[in-house]
Amino acid sequence: MEEGLKPWKYITVFVLSIATDFICAWSTYAVSHRQLLAAATAGFLIPFINLFSVVWFIDEKSFMGRLKLAATLALANSIGSVLMLTTITR
Q1: First-to-last CA distance in the chain?
Q2: What backbone torsions phi and psi does residue 62 show, to the nearest 5 degrees?
Q3: Distances (CA, A) of 81 to 53, 58, 74
Q4: What's the rounded Cα separation, in Å, for the pair 18 and 83?
Q5: What is the mean pLDDT of each run of 10 residues along the chain (90 residues)?
Q6: pLDDT confidence of residue 2
Q7: Is 1 strand, coil or helix?
């Protein structure tokens, strides 16, 4: 499956990173509101959602390739946090 997604590497990393950051922010919100089972479930799912990002980051040999992945992750994480905040405030 990883080879089939390789042409879509940056898009896949971007979408999964948005989902991961959204779930991380939601998990923190759930803990602060004493929804511990939801927070534990989110904490369990996060490493599996982020698996492709980690594998592709490790497989990338060039510094520029890793820098592109890191920039993609940073942009996606900021979008995920903003989405979570807008969801809570509505």
Answers
A1: 38
A2: -90, 150
A3: 18, 25, 11
A4: 9
A5: 74 90 83 80 86 85 91 91 83
A6: 61
A7: coil
